[in-house]
Design goal:
The protein is of the alpha+beta class and 818 residues long. The protein contains 25 helices and 34 strands. A hairpin with a 2-residue loop joins β31 and β32. Bound molecules: ligand ANZ and zinc ion.
């Protein structure tokens, strides 16, 4: 055994061995319980960063631990390989996205291997390969046949810098999630997936995830789906038989309506202003709003404005005339695009009423209080009792909500109604580096799916990347011009590609059967492995990837590919890696390159630091001193083993507390990894064991029990620092492959029987040594001191003014004669 710890040499050798023997490849041994552990796969941007290192280290501890606990573990890795950076790099470097991506994948794979992560590399998935996206095209066609994929003209979120459409989820604070440019609206024919058809089911599913997912993520998904329960109420257009239907969540305020607001884009507008003197001013207003929407930041707070149409609606419960306004804050895409305005109880309506001098009629009052619309400074939005509301006056407003809707339903003037904020998922991108949408547009036949035998629709390699607007595919004649599969006439191939979130919505299914060629994955294999027992990734995916995956799993189940609704049983969202108070990022200039740490200290040190510095779900503050500390600890372990193996100690005496310490550590590490992923406390208990072993080594270092303790230590270290642990295990003759070595069990008896020696002092003088159970309480120790023959005489009849108790060590009485 080498005297000096040489991580670089050890690690590279171990990694080569793991690679040669494929020790982490997954079996299909159904006699063992399965455990599917997944970390979010990376985008192959070129290099692994510390965020990856942290995410994957956390996962690796769990994977190794579960294997040792006898599970059949699936722990795969792959590449989310489509996406814009590849295309942007191609434009910049005059290269090809495929070349760029393949090179990055090769480099990053080596980096991951150099970290010693125990992936089953035989299952590597790369989403940019036709063997993968072929199935996506098949899914798309199935969805299209069922009406779950459709094309419509729509105002889309557009990023000028990236020259592409963004999904709602990719707009963060009105900016492009990727490049931070402001997002504008643009009308384009786009492909959508009907995620709204699954809104209720996705919402219900959240209940099932309560025990396995962080509350924060569930709340974000719930809010994103945004269910609103209320009613649709029909007002009549004065002087006609026509209805104007509104959506409200507050039917209890119906008697307080003093005007109505409709969306500028509403088809009603033209009808309302026909022949009215207001027509011109309304049209001008609508134009202004539409222009502003296209040029201005869509999400910025804008001044609430409106204009009177000259038309009135009749409130169905009290027959009052209410003027109809066109207002810039009413969205055409939500509810009915028309709102009953109740300024006394809605702040937005309140401000609008003040601005345009419209009446404010109070219909809800706090108990025992009277409100005056003229004097109000803000809308009253709390609970209360109904006022000025005909037969409903006096009723609690929560009760009135139902009573008024019941009344309306009976009179056929309204009905219960539910609305969701969730919009359909816009999936088409005017980009090259993505999965081609397998549709052909024929003048005679309309949209025709590419026949199954022609799948996959591959990306042509010979394209030019100029960076000009529009997809490079649309400029590729041979790709675009095809014959219609139905009628044979000249037709045009769809040139949009799919959102890359499509690939990540099912990659976890492909891992179960990555080399399938006649189907996307075998239903049996998917059924065996799914759901994923533990998923680990960043909180930034709370509503993007994690919602799409839940949706897509349901879709694939409905299409008959599998039977599952929730793909991820448990979710851990790891914290960020921060340095100098900010997230590690290129733009902040505070990046630490994992390779440098590996070169200087080795992968085991990098892993140990990541695990020890903070619990997984919290942010991790990078500290060079912490890295140093981890490295020093590993050196201490190495030295301890070295001294033992080379018989450098004197003593051969069994220490009475040794077994206690070993079993206590096994228990703590097992529980900390197993239940809550408290790796930091698991590591610190291992450190305590090392301290203890170091302390007793001179007397006990050559005893069999000491050597056994050291072997156990090495086994416990394996999930955290696998290279060093396996090296030492081999040297010390632990026997067998640590990858599948049975995880040590602890013995409750060893935990109980062990005693410690507690020194009793009276006024600083040693009076007795007590042999007491480990972790004995102060009270019990004091009692024992009073009973002990030797210390008893010094305590009897004395007044104890102070007792100092150092757990498992010392009991000191300060006494004075009484
Ligand atoms: C009358 C009322 C009185 C309202 C009151 C609120 C408070 P959520 O919870 O987001 O679903 N609304 C309905 N459709 C709208 C649209 N297309 N654009 C803008 N606002 C719209 O909000 C529902 C409430 O938002 C509805 O209830 C409606 O105003 C408004 F004291 O109706 B409410
Ligand atoms: Zn045709």
């Amino acid at each position: 055994m080498e005297q000096k710890y040489n991580p670089q040499l050890i690690e590279v050798n171990r990694q080569k061995k793991w690679d040669d023997t494929q020790v982490n490849a997954t079996g299909f041994d159904t006699s063992k319980p399965k455990y599917y552990l997944l970390e979010m796969f990376p985008y192959p941007s070129g290099r692994i960063h510390m965020g990856h290192v942290r995410n994957y280290t956390i996962g690796d501890v769990v994977a190794r631990f579960k294997r040792m606990k006898g599970f059949n573990v699936l722990h795969p890795m792959g590449w989310d390989a489509f996406g814009m950076p590849a295309e942007n790099a191609a434009i910049k470097n005059n290269s090809h996205p495929q070349t760029w991506t393949d090179k990055n994948v090769a480099e990053m794979r080596e980096q991951l291997k150099r970290m010693g992560f125990s992936y089953d590399w035989t299952r590597e998935v790369n989403t940019s390969k036709p063997e993968y996206f072929k199935w996506e095209q098949e899914f798309f066609i199935r969805m299209w046949e069922k009406g779950l994929a459709y094309q419509k003209l729509s105002e889309v979120n557009w990023c000028n810098t990236c020259a592409t459409v963004l999904a709602n989820e990719q707009v963060v604070d009105a900016k492009c999630w990727r490049c931070d440019s402001p997002v504008i609206l643009k009308p384009l024919k786009q492909w959508f997936f009907k995620i709204t058809a699954y809104a209720e089911d996705l919402l219900k599913g959240i209940e099932e995830l309560k025990d396995g997912w962080p509350d924060r993520v569930l709340t974000m998904q719930r809010e994103w789906i945004g269910k609103s329960t209320g009613a649709e109420i029909d007002f009549t257009l004065e002087g006609t038989k026509e209805k104007v239907t509104i959506f409200t969540t507050r039917p209890d305020t119906l008697f307080g309506v003093t005007f109505m607001s409709i969306a500028p884009q509403s088809p009603l507008v033209e009808k309302l202003i026909e022949g009215k003197p207001q027509a011109d001013s309304v049209r001008a207003f609508v134009d202004k709003v539409n222009k502003a929407e296209k040029t201005e930041d869509k999400f910025a707070e804008k001044e609430k404005e409106g204009v009177f149409t000259g038309a009135f609606a009749i409130n169905p419960v009290n027959n009052r005339r209410v003027p109809i306004y066109v207002a810039n804050f009413v969205l055409m895409g939500y509810g009915t695009g028309a709102v009953m305005a109740v300024p006394a109880h809605d702040q937005r309506d309140f401000e609008f009423a003040r601005k345009y001098d419209l009446p404010i009629n109070v219909v809800i009052e706090p108990k025992g209080q009277h409100l005056d619309g003229k004097a109000m400074k803000a809308a009253y939005t709390e609970e209360g009792n109904l006022a000025n509301s005909g037969q409903f006056t006096g009723m609690k407003n929560e009760v009135a909500k139902h009573a008024i809707v019941d009344f309306l339903e009976r009179k056929k003037l309204g009905r219960k109604s539910v609305n969701y904020k969730l919009r359909d998922w816009g999936i088409s991108r005017q980009r090259y580096w993505g999965t081609p949408i397998p549709i052909i547009h024929c003048e005679a036949c309309g949209m025709v799916p590419v026949p199954e035998s022609d799948l996959p629709v591959k990306l042509p390699f010979d394209v030019s990347f100029t960076g000009v607007e529009g997809s490079p595919l649309s400029r590729h004649e041979a790709f675009v011009n095809v014959n219609c599969p139905t009628c044979g006439n000249k037709a045009r191939r769809e040139t949009d590609t799919m959102d890359t979130f499509m690939e990540s919505s099912w990659y976890f299914l492909r891992y179960t059967d990555p080399n399938a060629t006649t189907e996307p994955f075998s239903p049996e294999k998917a059924a065996y492995w799914l759901p994923i027992d533990q998923y680990i990734g960043g909180i930034e995916h709370a509503v993007l990837h994690l919602l799409y995956s839940r949706f897509f799993t349901r879709v694939l189940s409905d299409l008959g590919y599998l039977k599952l609704s929730e793909p991820f049983e448990k979710l851990l969202t790891q914290g960020m890696v921060i340095k100098d108070g900010a997230k590690m990022s290129k733009s902040k200039g505070n990046v630490v390159d994992p390779n440098h740490i590996i070169e200087q200290y080795g992968a085991d040190t990098a892993r140990l630091f990541m695990l020890f510095a903070s619990p997984p779900e919290r942010d991790l503050d990078w500290s060079d001193a912490g890295v140093e500390g981890s490295y020093r600890f590993l050196n201490r372990v190495w030295n301890l083993a070295y001294e033992t193996v080379s018989n450098r100690w004197e003593g051969n005496q069994d220490h009475p507390e040794l077994l206690y310490w070993v079993h206590k550590t096994i228990k703590k590490v097992t529980e900390d990894i197993g239940d809550e992923f408290h790796f930091n406390t698991a590591v610190s208990s291992i450190m305590e064991l090392v301290n203890f072993l170091q302390k007793i080594a001179p007397q006990s270092g050559l005893s069999a029990a000491f050597k056994d303790a050291l072997k156990t230590l090495v086994v416990l270290l394996f999930p955290f620092v696998p290279h060093m642990a396996e090296e030492l295990a081999e040297i010390m003759g632990v026997g067998g492959d640590l990858a599948t070595y049975p995880w040590p069990k602890y013995d409750e008896k060893a935990l109980q029987v062990s005693n410690v020696t507690i020194v009793v002092q009276v006024n600083g003088k040693l009076r007795a040594q007590l042999n007491l159970p480990v972790d004995v309480s102060q009270d019990d120790a004091v009692k024992a001191a009073h009973d002990n023959e030797k210390s008893k005489p010094y305590l009897e009849g004395k007044q104890v003014v102070k007792t100092i108790f150092v757990k498992n060590k010392l009991l000191n009485f300060v006494v004075k004669d009484s």
